[in-house]
Design goal:
The complex is a heterodimer of chains A (324) and B (272). Chain A is an alpha/beta fold. Chain A is 27% helix and 28% strand. Chain A is built from eight helices and 18 strands. With 272 residues, chain B is an alpha/beta fold. Classes of the chains: A alpha/beta (324), B alpha/beta (272). The complex binds flavin-adenine dinucleotide and adenosine monophosphate (AMP).
């Protein structure tokens, strides 16, 4: 039977939250094509997350758990995903457009010799999708014309799949021959943070070049902490080394759509807007009343952050203590 | 070392986008080199020079698939210092990443570069596919979203810093390989080739073409070919049915004080 295969990422015994929107995409796709939904987990120790995946309403969970797949490499993973797709008779292979999804899925499409849609925002038909172009300033309706198709899914546009029904079967599949083509994972310089993941947080506070240095980002951090928010930044702030690069929000950074996005000392270049424009409520704090960020802000405060941000942190703190 | 760099012309991102019916109106578009591709050219030049002695130690071939007018963007890469250019005829508005990748893969078979350097994404289509596809078609290792590159002493492997979701991953790939570059690759010390002194700090960003460079570019080879010549004439697999403007956000309000902001967020928007 026709199958929609969704690759899920896992971390230890947990599925990555980022993968849940792709599962929702998969369910919708399976319905649109009268197909079954299968979830795929790959990696050394990936079995640990299979139980969670089995609860997500798929017909089966396929696990390729092999010690040789310890660190992610596109070279070793892509042939496995492509082979499982063929064996399962999958005509759709999808994953969330996380960094891994963006790196891996085109390579899978090359191996399956099929067309691919990037950053799908909506399903319009069995092979028809809406996706952003030009930093989200244009929306394209596209048709993938090959019988099999690959898609990455924009995380903010599909709801995270919730557990439903009874758990499905879990099928173990051998990794088979694994060739890394000489490529090797060397190290991960991880950005440690106690705060929620940027792409999953309900509230995001971002700072820009106007923060002037990394130390001043401490004020943004304090505000994040009282709000339980994730911290983000503009490209200029990342480039200048104020904060790690993986905090960059935008066309070429992370795309976020929290309930509340607070942009501090960010001018609002189109490339930044592309990553946060679909937030429910946008607040801008900027000393320049003409800054383009105000054109997308629901609430704009023309002020110096040096005064406004500590004050805002204090007011929210007050509100929170009054609530509890 | 021979490097093949791909370069797409894109409508200037700073220009306002126009629509005509359910399509883009590009009649008055100003074209520029896709920023990531300009960074890829800069990266290739840094890898193939001894910067402290202003000497070239390799070859950089730039490739674009597009109409005749794309020769202008190729010339600008030649003016930066690339050695020669190939223009493959194509309609850049309807090409999909797969067609681009097939053509680039065919050129790699002809040119046999040690490294294929591409942008992480074309900022018009925002597909972020072509580099990975080329690597997939050719069975080459890939290192995408590179923010740093270091060539090994024997010149046979690259250690690439890749911007990933939780930080920076270091990946080692043997050459030949496909690398796609991210924004931070143009930082002063992001590219090391073991020939230029490790102390050497480049100016941030892609280099400007000097007048001498511009003059020299006029004499450099720019070969024109068709996908048919390369045996890579394929139909688009991803068809654009229509393109429309996104719904505009409704206008917001300015607040005067922090107190007013907090009140609005709490009582009106109910987000805190
Ligand atoms: C290919 C490409 C991709 C890009 N991708 C991204 C991306 O993904 N994300 C991204 O963010 N950018 C991206 N950019 C960069 C983008 O074009 C802008 O350069 C960048 O977003 C600007 O960052 P900024 O707003 O922090 O800095 P600026 O534009 O310099 O703005 C600083 C703002 O701070 C305000 N300010 C200064 N001091 C104070 C103060 N004391 N109090 C209050 N306000 C103050 C100023 O009024 C100003 O509006 C990309 C660019 C290119 C070419
Ligand atoms: N028409 C083209 N000509 C040359 N290179 C291209 C073309 N289209 C895409 N590329 C290259 O492929 C990269 C990724 O493009 P894309 O997959 O379209 O986002 C770009 O940064 C370019 O380096």
């Amino acid at each position: 039977m026709a199958t929609v295969l969704v690759l899920c990422e896992s971390k230890g015994s947990a599925l990555r939250g980022a993968s849940l929107p792709a599962v929702s995409f998969g369910r919708e796709m399976a319905k649109a094509r009268g197909a079954e939904l299968a979830l795929l987990l790959v990696g050394a120790g990936a079995s640990a997350a299979a139980g969670d995946a089995a609860k997500l309403g798929a017909q089966r969970v396929i696990v390729v758990d092999d010690p040789r797949l310890g660190a992610y490499l596109a070279e070793t993973w892509a042939p496995i995903v492509a082979r499982v797709a063929r064996e399962q008779g999958a005509d759709v292979v999808a994953a969330t457009a996380t960094n891994l999804g963006k790196d891996l899925l085109p390579r899978v499409a090359a191996l399956l010799d099929c067309g691919m849609a990037s950053e799908v925002m909506a399903i319009l038909g069995p092979s028809r999708f809406r996706r952003p172009m030009l930093a989200g300033n244009a929306l394209a309706e596209i048709e993938v014309t090959t019988p099999t198709l690959v898609a990455t899914v924009r995380q903010t546009e599909f709801p995270p799949a919730q557990p439903q029904g009874t758990p499905c079967e879990i099928v173990r599949v051998e990794a088979g021959a694994v060739s890394d083509l000489g490529a090797a994972f060397v190290a991960l310089q991880e950005t440690k943070s106690e705060r929620p993941e940027l792409t999953e947080a309900r509230i995001v506070v971002s700072g820009g070049r106007g923060m002037r240095n990394g130390e001043n980002f401490g004020f943004i951090e304090k505000l994040c902490d009282v709000l339980g928010a994730a911290m983000g930044a503009s490209r200029a702030a990342c480039d200048a080394g104020f904060v790690p690069n993986d905090l960059q929000v935008g066309q070429t950074g992370k795309v976020v759509a929290p309930d509340l996005y607070i942009a501090v000392a960010i001018s609002g270049a189109i490339q930044h807007l592309a990553g946060m424009k679909s937030s429910k409520v946008i607040v801008a704090v900027n000393k320049d009343a003409e800054a383009p960020i105000f054109q997308v802000a629901d609430y704009g405060l023309v002020a110096q952050w040096e005064k406004a941000i500590p004050e805002l942190t204090e007011e929210i703190q007050k509100l929170k203590s009054a609530q509890s | 070392m021979k490097i093949l760099v791909t370069l797409k012309r894109v409508p200037d991102p700073e220009q306002k986008i126009k629509f005509k019916g359910e399509a883009l109106d590009l009649s008055s578009a100003n074209y520029v080199v896709n920023p990531f591709d300009e960074y890829a050219v800069e990266t290739a030049l840094r890898l193939t020079e001894k910067a402290d002695a202003a000497a070239r130690i390799g070859e950089v071939v730039v490739v674009s698939i597009g109409p005749k007018e794309a020769a202008q963007q190729l010339r600008s890469a030649l003016a930066m210092g690339a050695d020669r250019a190939i223009l493959v005829a194509g309609d850049d508005a309807s090409l999909d990443s797969e067609q681009v990748a097939r053509i680039v893969a065919k050129l790699c078979e002809q040119e046999k570069p040690d490294l294929v350097l591409m942008g992480k994404q074309a900022v018009d289509g925002d597909s972020n596919q072509a580099g990975q596809l080329v690597a997939g078609y050719l069975g080459l290792p890939q290192a995408c979203f590179a923010s740093s590159l270091e060539l090994s002493a024997d010149g046979k492997t690259l250690t690439v810093g890749r911007e990933v979701d939780g930080g920076v991953e270091l990946k080692r790939v043997p050459l030949p390989a496909v690398v796609t570059v991210d924004l931070r690759i143009i930082q002063p010390k992001a590219v090391r080739n073991r020939v230029t002194s490790p102390e050497h700090a480049y100016q941030e960003g892609p280099r400007y073409a000097s007048l001498k460079g511009i003059m020299a570019a006029k004499k450099k080879e720019l070969r024109e070919v068709t996908p048919g010549d390369l045996g890579a004439a394929t139909a688009a697999r991803v068809k654009i049915v229509k393109i429309v403007a996104p719904a505009a956000r409704k206008a917001g309000v300015k607040v005067e004080t922090v107190q007013e902001l907090v009140k609005k967020l709490h009582e009106e928007a109910k987000v805190i």
